[in-house]
Amino acid sequence: MSKSDFSQNLLASSGKPQTAADKIPIIARGAVSERAIKALNLVEKFVEEECIPADVLYHSQLGEGEKRWASYPPVMDELKAKAKKLGLWNLFLPRNHFTQGAGFSNLEYGLMAEYMGKSRTASEACNCAAPDTGNMEVLAKYGTDAQKKQWLTPLLNGEIRSAFLMTEPDVASSDATNITLTMKREGNEYVLNGSKWWSSGAGDPRCKIYIVMGKTDPNNRDTYKQQSVMLVPAGTKGVTVQRCLSVYGYDDAPHGHAQIKFENVRVPASAMVLGEGRGFEIIQGRLGPGRIHHAMRSIGAAEKALEWMIARVNDPRKKTFGKQLNEHGVILEWIAKSRLEIDAARLIVLNAAMKIDEKDAKNALKEIAEAKVLVPQMALTVIDRAVQSYGAAGVCQDTPLANMWAQIRTLRIADGPDEVHLQQMGKNENKRSREIREKLERQRQIGDEMVRKAGVRPVGKSML
Amino acid sequence: MSKSDFSQNLLASSGKPQTAADKIPIIARGAVSERAIKALNLVEKFVEEECIPADVLYHSQLGEGEKRWASYPPVMDELKAKAKKLGLWNLFLPRNHFTQGAGFSNLEYGLMAEYMGKSRTASEACNCAAPDTGNMEVLAKYGTDAQKKQWLTPLLNGEIRSAFLMTEPDVASSDATNITLTMKREGNEYVLNGSKWWSSGAGDPRCKIYIVMGKTDPNNRDTYKQQSVMLVPAGTKGVTVQRCLSVYGYDDAPHGHAQIKFENVRVPASAMVLGEGRGFEIIQGRLGPGRIHHAMRSIGAAEKALEWMIARVNDPRKKTFGKQLNEHGVILEWIAKSRLEIDAARLIVLNAAMKIDEKDAKNALKEIAEAKVLVPQMALTVIDRAVQSYGAAGVCQDTPLANMWAQIRTLRIADGPDEVHLQQMGKNENKRSREIREKLERQRQIGDEMVRKAGVRPVGKSML
Amino acid sequence: MSKSDFSQNLLASSGKPQTAADKIPIIARGAVSERAIKALNLVEKFVEEECIPADVLYHSQLGEGEKRWASYPPVMDELKAKAKKLGLWNLFLPRNHFTQGAGFSNLEYGLMAEYMGKSRTASEACNCAAPDTGNMEVLAKYGTDAQKKQWLTPLLNGEIRSAFLMTEPDVASSDATNITLTMKREGNEYVLNGSKWWSSGAGDPRCKIYIVMGKTDPNNRDTYKQQSVMLVPAGTKGVTVQRCLSVYGYDDAPHGHAQIKFENVRVPASAMVLGEGRGFEIIQGRLGPGRIHHAMRSIGAAEKALEWMIARVNDPRKKTFGKQLNEHGVILEWIAKSRLEIDAARLIVLNAAMKIDEKDAKNALKEIAEAKVLVPQMALTVIDRAVQSYGAAGVCQDTPLANMWAQIRTLRIADGPDEVHLQQMGKNENKRSREIREKLERQRQIGDEMVRKAGVRPVGKSML
Amino acid sequence: MSKSDFSQNLLASSGKPQTAADKIPIIARGAVSERAIKALNLVEKFVEEECIPADVLYHSQLGEGEKRWASYPPVMDELKAKAKKLGLWNLFLPRNHFTQGAGFSNLEYGLMAEYMGKSRTASEACNCAAPDTGNMEVLAKYGTDAQKKQWLTPLLNGEIRSAFLMTEPDVASSDATNITLTMKREGNEYVLNGSKWWSSGAGDPRCKIYIVMGKTDPNNRDTYKQQSVMLVPAGTKGVTVQRCLSVYGYDDAPHGHAQIKFENVRVPASAMVLGEGRGFEIIQGRLGPGRIHHAMRSIGAAEKALEWMIARVNDPRKKTFGKQLNEHGVILEWIAKSRLEIDAARLIVLNAAMKIDEKDAKNALKEIAEAKVLVPQMALTVIDRAVQSYGAAGVCQDTPLANMWAQIRTLRIADGPDEVHLQQMGKNENKRSREIREKLERQRQIGDEMVRKAGVRPVGKSML
């Protein structure tokens, strides 16, 4: 079968399949432009017809052993060329904050990112893969012209890749004030010493630039002014990539999650981003939209897992005890709950994206936190049901399920563990306490007065 | 303190409290008219300042023993007069389907219903209480002019109340084809025999009309054509209200949940709604919007429970082990999760409401089912956390929590238990199986071909 | 059918039904004496054949309104007479700590209490009902001869009932150091002032004695020496039973949960138990076995709920969508999980009971806490499934389910909320940290040394 | 530090650490012999002091790429020699069924297996590793003398390893009647054709014998008589190990999970076990004790995860937001719940083991199923909490947590997915329905009669 028949067959198979645009929740529809609708449908087509079929080839071209880190699968360049030609390039830079991107809103890009999340290759093919996306945002927002020319341009062109180096192995770096890598000014240079890990993407031979967070002023009383961000080219003298960390048993080559040592690494003062002591400001600006991207891709992964589950439980070869799996009530309940949980999570993320679009990420702290916490837990649950419905096939390399699960499991930890976000959300919500207590107290007083006037015996006694 | 000071104090207490309109999720904002915004703010004010303070009086006026069923609390008529004056009357009849209501969309009314759900008295005060709402919809949609004049007009005016009699004690009536009450044509009359229960509202002395589902043609091969709906005045000869059922110990007087016996009850043929055999059609049309109302009120109840929880854990008299409860991490997590779960559920319901607004309830079967299943489970969880944070006070009459929990617990059963809806949702979702299986098969074929052409060893083996 | 046919029929119906003894988990069997086996089988028979059938009569005899508190159902005295005759009396006082009881171990009595938990009337019929059990333990352990003669003897004979007054409405009394009722010595008397609530059993006209916890020395630096326990006869001047609290909508008459005011209540100094400042010591000794009793009765309630669920899903009148409920996979999974969860919880409680038997309740703090936390949550889950399988019938007075749920819901709060116990359990478990950290550190050191000696490249890096 | 100091230090660190024997739940203590107590303490010492430190070396010696499958880590032979010397060898064969083992009961061995589950190397070191254990049981129970001599003896000596080949890639083999590998008699030989996968252990170069399930009589009307079991030496002509399957990215080398093709594989008729058509009988006998072993090892893994969690949250380097993790209430609750859930699961397994000891595995079907379903879900929950408390370190190779999680995740699928077991458990429990319905009906009748005689108005109406 030629690929050109594919869409037609897809159409034929079910009479009237829904387009990606048809599947936008109606409550979000009004905020999506016609141009975005077209791009969204194109993204879905590109992902389903080009990227997903290429995923197995991508993994196969990776090979084994050291080879996995020495090059990258050639099919990626073919996909990138196709995406560029289709105009599906740098879709992530939102129109109200950047001029360099494709000009969509966070909401619109979020809808597209969902489809990218269904394929191992799609995000990178469209130059929308983390951590490059966040790094490009940092450079576009805070970089000098020279920094932009040197690093942002090739990143926007998809010629190089990048890594973001914040987390450290020896401290609890979910509290970012704990980081210890030192950046000491010496003349016109800074000297960097310390250790980083979970430097995702640093394993890739195309990764040319590290965006590094360290401390220029570790004794500043304001613990949020101690940090700075600098640009360190990969391969700078004194930088050693010590090893790559696995995620469950996956090495995630060629991307990788590196542990990197800095020993007297010297970089020119011009490599400083924004200025000394402004590291926190930079990373905070970086986090919001990235969480939306992760969340929407995870929703795509959950949708994919649900598709695979449905495919399995309708597989005529997989009857047990005389029944198709789709006839088992428990399985139908899994499917129904998965549908419901995915739909609820998607609305939470789209609402957060629109809240960012209204103003900026600070405007949407609550909504982003909700998405950050809800989505990975939902996706893990849905994927795990799919794994279970596949039996042993679900845990191995014959489905994308186990790998998707492992990837998304890290999202409950990355950018701060769920629990830290929940504590912060709880504290913020609790700020309403004075207002609430006063309101309830007044309601009680008025109510008591009404009962007194009416001369009846009160039922209950308000506790407040 | 006079009530007129109340709003000012509310305002004063927290600088800049959010209005109800401010709290509309941004993703829904665009679909809410200015007129609805105004009404919504007015509803919030009415509920918080008038209805909630009146709730204790309402309960106190109910009294004890038989008295609870003989009259109804006088405060209700005062509240109704106020609501009418404020224009907060019959808000529930959506503008695209009815002319008699206040002219709001389901989405807009949904937002208002949330606030009504925070008070025992608010829905009735605004003439928006079940089962009258659904019954008015039935009469407005399907009633003859005479039927409308006799029953719809006084219902719209809030002069009488009504009950809907479908469920039966001796069969599994979650499958409505199982009902057994017979309606036999004899000349110009029908003779009704059978038993109904959970006839909510039939305990109220103001309840004047029963909308009764029975079988006119129990042997019709089409099991969905056997049923008819008739209008039976309360007190018709042969009708006996046998007893009222409790809900976790609550009698819900004066409303009540009655068990009612029909022994040779004769009604004129003109009491038939729409025509013989059209009972299913009628009840199906009745269900959609009502589920949205229940769901939004439950969300209001959950918000109220969260407010009470926050009030408690900030109560300076309630320190344990040297700490305020709001300093306990577990409690903060409860608050955060409650916030998140409420917000997700609300989006699901608002999306369903908007889907109905787009066309009709049939258009929104999936979305309504999602709301039906998700919201009560969410609200029960949130309320139960609040109960737990109150300790013993939470289970008794001193907070509204235990009663709200019991009310909402019935929603997991009413209109079909969760499990029936989940099975149906699962089956619907599973209808995508052919389309999905074909898509995955084609993706696999193309992928295999790519791997073959590239001449590399494949990793994994697609299971499909 | 005469009652004498009952056992025979029971037997006939299934060939070979298991006795209560047969159902003892094998791991506990060895610790149960032959005498206990016989008593256990007798308890089951008494509960199933006498008490459960009498439950409806008990409720019916209670009547309505004020009458519910003025007397108690006459059937209770008949049941008590039967139980005494069968030797099923005061079974709860464990043989290694008391001489007054029937001479069983906590493990053995626990097995019996499970069956009592299946009936509203059984525990009281066997003089094994809370709070009398705990109060009799206090009197037997700490009472003077005079106190024993006056109060313990009639309690052991089932002639009077009693209440335990600790919890207070205005403080967070889950932390018992917070109680405020004052006990001031004046000459040969103490003067009591303060308020108590949740004084369970104080509603009963037979309740003659209150065991009251208060503060004799509120300024003692040792916050655990401020409290004392005194015996206050019901009806003492200055004592006012203000109202009874409901549990969800149940009033639990005639037992009741009273709010009681103490205004200058004078009691002789001889009413002091054990001595001033020894209140904590007394309540701590009181708590352990009582938690086992509650837990085992809750397990009985869960077993009863499971029986009712099975009865329902096999009811031929209750087919939905052409199937018996027992053919629905989801329902079968509920049954299976209920079986499993009940069995696991029972083992936890029996193990705790045996740990008490080995020495005393202090020996079993961890095990008792595990039972305290696990059992109510399990029972609530199982009962809620049964409610759901009954549909609307499950929430009302036509099954024992809703009432059982409400009763057990209070156990997540009584004797300290779950969360307080979990925090304490967590802290205790965390005391192992030094031992564990040292062990892991040594393992790491030895392991590193082995790797070094072997001259291979280490995989992973121990975090510890 | 020399290893000889280790125990002393362990002791010193905490005054009086509990021995393994001290930690036996009291309810099981009576059934454990003195000899077993000694062995148990020895097992703990061997695991903690020898095996766990050796685990990192074991993984390190495995190396990378093809090398991982070509040999096995030399440290294993050292550990085996030590275990043999200590008498910790073939502990698994229960004394009431076999003469070849160490003479312990299933309960006693279960206690030991828990400790083995804390180490990657311990089970194999004691010659107690799956699938050899089950295979040795099959050979000991059903093998001819020749079969025993050829295969059982070297297995008992730990000289060779083995695999069990049942699951097939193209069918739903959780229903074992679905298997398709054919075994055709031709003269004095059988010819085998078909495909197997998840043949665990077949990757190991020491694996010399496959125990293969196939169909000798695929058309037999009795679908449980079609299967036979044969012994096929690894390397037999026509047998191809095609690939090894991964488990969440882990290859589990050198053990491995192989996919194996049989093409006209010829084995002598003497390789048949027990006789044609007796395959089902053999695998059923094989399953019970193996599930106990898996379950107890999983409990050991959960205990280890809890130890690692406690170590982390007390790590002074890992403060966040000014607090040690052990001061966060949420973390303390995780620790407490983990303690409770592990303890409950252990009692379920020990009770099942004792039930097998009483007679045999058939006697304990319910209890084994409970252990099979409960334990993996519990262990996954506990381990996942530990992962979360470690943050990024938890998902990678620096802790044993991610790998343990992946291993145990397969247990929810192996030997039949949880859902199949739950359905079966539900059906079995539901067999009580007639007995229960009759009992409840009689109780209702007697109760109604009592109410009638007493002449009171009945409250409620029994539904049964």
TrEMBL record, chains A, B, C, D:
GO biological process, one term: fatty acid beta-oxidation using acyl-CoA dehydrogenase
Residue ranges of every copy of the Acyl-CoA dehydrogenase/oxidase N-terminal domain listed in the record: 41-159
Cofactor: FAD
Record-level Gene Ontology MF annotations: acyl-CoA dehydrogenase activity; flavin adenine dinucleotide binding
Domain spans labelled Acyl-CoA oxidase/dehydrogenase middle: 163-264
Xref: InterPro entries: Acyl-CoA_dehydrogenase, Acyl-CoA_Oxase/DH_mid-dom, Acyl-CoA_Oxase/DH_mid-dom_sf, AcylCo_DH-like_C, AcylCo_DH/oxidase_C, AcylCoA_DH/ox_N, AcylCoA_DH/ox_N_sf, AcylCoA_DH/oxidase_NM_dom_sf
Gene3D superfamilies the record matches: Acyl-CoA dehydrogenase/oxidase, N-terminal domain, Butyryl-CoA Dehydrogenase, subunit A, domain 2, Butyryl-CoA Dehydrogenase, subunit A, domain 3
Domain of life per record: Eukaryota
Keywords: FAD, Flavoprotein, Oxidoreductase
Boundaries of every Acyl-CoA dehydrogenase/oxidase C-terminal domain copy: 277-427
Tagged with keyword Transit peptide: no
One CC-aspect GO term: cytoplasm
DNA-binding is among the record's keywords: no
Subunit structure: Homodimer.
Family listed: Belongs to the acyl-CoA dehydrogenase family.
Name of protein: Acyl-CoA dehydrogenase
